[in-house]
Specification:
7-stranded mixed β-sheet, FAS1 domain-containing protein, 7 helices, alpha+beta, 39% helix, single chain, FAS1 domain
C-alpha cells in the first residue's frame, strides 16, 4: 500500500511538472513571436502622435501631460515629425535629481509637473523633435570607433540644437557590420568638437508610425535633457 501511494505521488508530481513545462513553452512561443519576429507586429498606429503616446500610459503618460503643459499639442497632432521619445522613467529620474538639488540649495521642491514653467518643458521636449518622418532606414550608418568612414549625420532639432543620429551595425560571428542594427542619437555639446563631444542615448524600439510621423523610444536609463541642464534651468526658473 505504501509503495502504491509513493508511486501515485510520483506520477502526480511528474504530471504537474510536465504541465508546467508545457505552459512555459507556450508562453515562450508567444513571447518569441512578439520579440523576435518583426513581421508579427504592425508598426502603424491609426491616430496622431499625441494619441499614440496617450495610448501607452505606462511609458508615456507623463510625456503626454508635459506636451500639453508646454503648448505643443498642435505639433504632435498636425506636424509631420520624428520624435525620439524619452520615457516617463527618464522624466521621473530628472525630477528626482532636480528635487535633490532644490532641497540641497534651500529651495522649495517640486510637487506637480506644472511647478515647472511651460517654457522649460517646451525647450527640452523640442530637443527630441525633428522635422519630417524618418525611419531607421533613412539614417546613415554610424561607427563610434570609425567616425571618419561612418559618421552618421547631424540634424537640427525643433529648437535648433544639433544632434548626431546614426545606425550602428553590430558584428556577429566575426563578420563586421552583419549583426543587429539599432539607432542612436547624440547631443553635440561642443560645436568646436562636433564629432567628439556627444552625449548619446540608445533607442529601445524604433519605427512606430502614427499618422503624422515616426516615434523612436529611448532606453529608460536615458537622462531627460541629455545632461543636467534641465536641473539647473528649473533651479534658475523657480
Amino acid at each position: 500500500m505504501l509503495n502504491d501511494m509513493r508511486n501515485y505521488s510520483k506520477k502526480i508530481r511528474w504530471g504537474l511538472g510536465l504541465f508546467s513545462l508545457i505552459l512555459l513553452l507556450l508562453a515562450s512561443c508567444k513571447k518569441d513571436k512578439y520579440y523576435f519576429d518583426g513581421g508579427k507586429s504592425d508598426p502603424n498606429f491609426k491616430g496622431t502622435m499625441l494619441q499614440y503616446l496617450q495610448s501607452k500610459p505606462v511609458q508615456f503618460d507623463t510625456i503626454a501631460q508635459i506636451i500639453k503643459i508646454a503648448g505643443l499639442e498642435k505639433e504632435f497632432q498636425q506636424d509631420e515629425l520624428t520624435f525620439f521619445a524619452p520615457t516617463d522613467q527618464s522624466v521621473r529620474s530628472a525630477l528626482k535629481n532636480t528635487n535633490n538639488y532644490l532641497y540641497q540649495t534651500g529651495k522649495d521642491t517640486l510637487k506637480v509637473l506644472t511647478d515647472i514653467r511651460p517654457q522649460i518643458w517646451r525647450k527640452y521636449l523640442m530637443m527630441y523633435m525633428f522635422k519630417g518622418a524618418n525611419r531607421m532606414k533613412d539614417y546613415y550608418q554610424l561607427d563610434i570607433n570609425l567616425k571618419s568612414v561612418y559618421p552618421g549625420q547631424n540634424y537640427y532639432s525643433y529648437n535648433n540644437v544639433i544632434f548626431n543620429i546614426g545606425v550602428i551595425f553590430d558584428d556577429i560571428n566575426g563578420i563586421k557590420y552583419a549583426g543587429y542594427r539599432h539607432l542612436t542619437i547624440g547631443y553635440v555639446t561642443d560645436l568646436n568638437k562636433p564629432t567628439d563631444s556627444w552625449v548619446s542615448a540608445d533607442i529601445s524600439s524604433s519605427d512606430i508610425k502614427p499618422l503624422n510621423g515616426v516615434v523612436h523610444t529611448l532606453n529608460t536609463n536615458h537622462i531627460f535633457g541629455f545632461d543636467y541642464g534641465f536641473v539647473y534651468d528649473v533651479y534658475a526658473g523657480k
